Amino acid sequence: MSEFDIKAGEWDKNRMHRERAEAVAGAIMKRISPGRQMSVMEYGAGTGLLSFLLKDHVGSITMIDNSEGMVGVLRQKIEESGSPGLKVLMADLEKEDYTGEKFDLICTLMVMHHVNDVELILRKFSAMLRPGGWLAIADLYAEDGSFHGHGFTGHRGFDTGEFAKLLERNGFGNLDTETVYSIDRITPDNDRKKFDVFLMTAVRR
């Protein structure tokens, strides 16, 4: 059982998780102006906080996650919402390919710093988007490792300049970046720190 399987049932009760998703959703809608014709995919959707904020502004959303616990919560939320445009898929794009429909928007929230091979996922995102489709990635700016603490094997946030180069190398242009949220957090070392979250958008060439 993964960390996210354990946390799934209580995830939505965390005010910071909700506020963060609201900030990112608001920034995406302002930047992209999504419409009812848009087909969206959220990767690493978790309990779908971001997707549920976007669902009334787009046509359909496919939520992909590799945590059984998160997917279970998602399925229950979809059933309770009665929203026909929402669907969930349990998958790990680092280990398997997606061969379904192409999308007009792909978004992620605090996911990419957990991804081992970031460029692989960006390459797959490029293939999954229609030409002219949008990518919206929200994640941590580069930090000193204290966000997760000792033993974390993912990325210590991202240098947005370097991240932009990865996007450009994998078929994206029209890049834009802004700070959309600040996480006030007690670190594993018991220090209080703020960690800023960026939203980077790009267009599939």
Short description:
31% of the residues lie in helices and 31% in strands. The protein has 205 residues and is α/β, with parallel strands linked by helices. The chain has a single domain, classed as Rossmann fold, CATH 3.40.50.
How many helix segments?
A: 6
In CATH, the topology is named Rossmann fold
Corresponding CATH superfamily: Vaccinia Virus protein VP39
Helix/strand class:
alpha/beta
Notes on the protein architecture:
This protein has 205 residues and is α/β, with parallel strands linked by helices. It has one domain (3-204): Vaccinia Virus protein VP39 (Rossmann fold, 3-Layer(aba) Sandwich). 31% of the residues lie in helices and 31% in strands. It has six helices and seven strands, in the order H-H-E-H-E-H-E-E-H-E-H-E-E. The protein has helices at 3-7, 15-32, 49-54, 68-81, 118-128, 160-169; strands at residues 39-43, 60-65, 86-90, 103-109, 129-140, 172-186, 192-204. It has a seven-stranded mixed beta sheet with strand order 3-2-1-4-5-7-6. The protein is globular, with a radius of gyration of 16 Å. The N and C termini lie far apart (39 Å). The mean pLDDT is 96.
Question: Descriptors for this entry?
Answer:
alpha/beta; 7-stranded mixed sheet; Rossmann fold; about 30% strand; about 200 residues; globular
Question: Helices, strands, pairings?
Answer:
Elements: H1 3-7, H2 15-32, E1 39-43, H3 49-54, E2 60-65, H4 68-81, E3 86-90, E4 103-109, H5 118-128, E5 129-140, H6 160-169, E6 172-186, E7 192-204
Parallel strand pairs: 1-2, 1-4, 2-3, 4-5
Antiparallel strand pairs: 5-7, 6-7
